[in-house]
Amino acid sequence: MPTRTDLFLTYGKIGLIGFGGINAWARRVLVEEKRWLTEQEYAETLGLGQVLPGPNALNAAIMVGDRFHGAIGALLASCSMFGGPLIILMGLAVLYDSYGEVPLVKAVLAGVAAAAAGMVLGTAVKMAQKLKPTLALLAVGLCALAAAGFFRVPLPMVVLGLAPFGILASWYGARSK
């Protein structure tokens, strides 16, 4: 079990190196480097964090912090994860206010957005490879991608509509093992 200091420093690191893809970095640090969570535990924590109101990375940090050190751990993880980036973001906001209309700045921001989207997709593929979902669970995931990504269905409706199918697919997959 990590100490409170280790939890604070680890989430501070995640927050500072996770620009544009904090969940990708959190997974790497928590599962691969620190081995505080298994791939399955991280996927479940992130999944729950995504269906709760608020930022999914914050929800996951609160759950991980709470798991190891209760309410104090939840506070340490969440404040640490967002403290450093908040300071940097305030500085960038001042710069953007002054230089946001410069064509080179616009091009840089478009490139950064593309890289962030790639990180999200890369993390999803990496998690799917390690978790090895059944075909039924993979189908539910692809339906969610199509609904939210292509048809622009609001996330709460996607979750409410597909959750029963995901639960059934998971339950059936566990029974057949």
Describe this structure in words.
By secondary structure, the chain is an all-alpha fold. 84% of the residues lie in helices and 0% in strands. It has 7 helices and no strands. It has helices spanning 4-17, 22-33, 39-51, 56-99, 103-131, 135-150, 155-175. Helix 1 crosses helix 2, helix 1 (4-17) packs across helix 4 (56-99) and helix 3 crosses helix 4. The longest helix is centred in the middle third of the chain and has 44 residues, at 56-99. It is globular, with a radius of gyration of 18 Å. The mean pLDDT is 91.
Summarize this structure briefly:
The protein is 84% helix and 0% strand. The protein has helices at residues 4-17, 22-33, 39-51, 56-99, 103-131, 135-150, 155-175.
Count the DSSP helices.
7
Q: State the end-to-end distance.
A: 31 Å
Shape: globular
- Could you tell me the mean pLDDT? 91
Q: What is the count of distinct domains?
A: 2
Which spans of ≥5 residues are poorly predicted at pLDDT below 50?
none
Radius of gyration: 18 Å
Largest sheet: none
Strand content: under 5%
- Residues in helices, as a percent range: over 70%
Could you state the order of secondary-structure elements as H and E? Answer: HHHHHHH
Structural class: mainly alpha
Write the layout of secondary structure elements.
Blueprint: H1 4-17, H2 22-33, H3 39-51, H4 56-99, H5 103-131, H6 135-150, H7 155-175
Helix pairs in contact: 1-2, 1-4, 3-4, 6-7
